[in-house]
Structures
1.
Amino acid sequence: MLRTNFSRINQTKAVFDDIYAMDDPRAYFSVLGNLDYMIPDVAEPVVRQILAAKAQATGVQPTVLDVGCSYGINAAVHRFPLTFGGLRHRYARREMRVISSETLVRLDRNFYASWPDVGLARFIGLDISAPAINYATSVGLLEHGVVADLETGTLSAEGARIVRSADVIMSTGCIGYVTEKTFSKILDATDERPWIISFVLRLFPFDSLAATFAKYGLVTERLAGATFIQRRFRDAEEFESTLATLATLGVDATGLESEGLFHADLILSRPEADARITPLEDIVTIASGRGRPIGPRYVHIEGNEGLQVTLEP
Ligand SMILES: C[S@@+](CC[C@H](N)C(=O)[O-])C[C@H]1O[C@@H](n2cnc3c(N)ncnc32)[C@H](O)[C@@H]1O
């Protein structure tokens, strides 16, 4: 049977455990922001398209379980017109850097409550870090959070009750920390077979996850012809060892990791019947250049007199 052993590959990557375990996300945004961490932002348009397809297929607003959700940043970028990059600047302000975590949580609760929810999905999350989950639920990004390490432990009855309602499971920057062990414990607890959206570094083979998902009747598709930048390499050692690992795996890094950036693939796993009706290629359109700084553009808004054109700065 295929079984993942990511521990050797993980020696390639820098360790950031400290920043995941603070009472608020300031260190997280500072450290990962300085490495141009961007996967929540580059994943966002694609996740929106998949969530819209899922909602269309079922006629209901999906509940998304974000695995390795950390401080709930995916919920922030999907629920509100916010970006990782924009949030990073919020926390980098010198006024923000001197306040207590309690004050920051109070301000952030008000901040997130002040934005209209795009309404594409409800968000719940699972992470090994109790402080991160506590922050994400306290500020209202996640409706519920589960603190668990399902690589080594079991899902509590309360945790199982929370993840049960998940229609979609997603993860960014987390596979590698977690393997099929975590996902199978979650799948055992869900009512229906969910869709699983994985943004996974090309460094981590997905075979054993796909094999596990197949046992639950889920087929796995990988989006061809597109990759998603996660962040810059931290140092020459991370760069060199990643290239060496990719070479061992037979993955060609030319023009991708060789340019100094971690790249992730988009992988979607879902019930065979759903995949047959709408292949991944029909759901996802990549609009290159979308995230670049751009001048005012025309958009539609729904006004009292129907659809109107407005200029968004
Ligand atoms: C790079 S962060 C990604 C966070 C978030 N998904 C994002 O993209 O901004 C990795 C996250 O995985 C979490 N993590 C590490 N080991 C885990 C485990 N065994 N189970 C659940 N989460 C874990 C960490 O606490 C951290 O929040």
2.
Amino acid sequence: MRRQTTRDLRRHNRAALLSSLYLRGPASRLELVAESGLSPATVTNVIAELLGEGLVAEAGSVESDGGRPRTMLRVNPGFGRVIGVDVGETHVCVGLFDYELETLATVDHPLRGTDLDPDEVARLATIGVEQVLAEGGNVLGIGVGVPGAVRDSGVVHAPTLGWSDVPFADLLRTHLPIDAPLSVDNRARTLGQAEMWRGAGRGAERAVIALLGVGVGAAFVTGGGSVPGITTSEWGHTVVRAGGAECRCSSRGCLEAYVGTDAVVRRYLEMPGAQPIPDLQSEARLAEVVARAATPGPAADTLADIGEYLGIGIANLINLLAPDRVVLAGSGSAAMGPAILERVRSSAARHALGYLAESTEIELGRLGAEAVALGAATLPIAELLASGGRTAEVRG
Ligand SMILES: [Zn+2]
């Protein structure tokens, strides 16, 4: 019992210092003492261990007032690599990242049609993992983001894929070429974690990370800074127009039925004067609409409407949750975000309560097309940080 307690305490101290260096950046031992509340002797001992195991590295020194220079410490980017798998509705994207989440390689496999066979998706994900593994390196873990609810460490319920209680983690384990820790979670949550750790959510205390794609979701993040708490939602199926456009959830007037990737293209094609769009992947069709919107006409009018509806959806979030920041992310945001951001901001300001809208920033995500894969890669990192860097304990 006594040994157990000592080990728990050591793990807690390792987790605290490692998380601090990982999420807040380089610091000296003195700064870590101040931040963690641990004694100088404990910090010195734990850091010596982490340095010895290669989890932490020295990063030069800075002058200090009157004393000798202080050695700065940081996480060691060479400690290992992580793989993130984004199972979207139109593609499977796999990324290889270093320990600090810098992208080393990505591959993308398109998916066609609906009601996707889970085994086929697992097979494509495995091919992607094998491709990025060709880069080599010690893989600390694999994270997977899926467009649905996840329970019991990897059983997926994803109506938009036609999946009901699919044991996707088990299915992947039978295919994967390596025996690394595997974590599966909702895509909106993994994207939220990516934007909070490395993107436009950094520093926010209460943030909403909106995932715009074929499907539309949102993650609500509280307590930015340390490891944040993340709640996902079915924001895409909140109604923005009574009796409005038909939604694939069988209701009408849902936000997704206006601002989802396919919905935007469909709305454009219904406009008078719209020109046909080649039969491409959903994202490529949306990119075509955005390109046409550069000049006045039906495409520009469509995007103005979309900005208005998205602003209404965000105003509802602002009135419900009072976030200090809303980040628009996902492939839909990457494609049309710059074109509609001002309209979204003005619509949200008109539809939300003034005092709440005034204290909410609306920004575009900064992580690009592989944001969800990067978010998935944060899953094994989060487990590593929580365990104090003991990968063997994560597995056990
Ligand atoms: Zn709906």
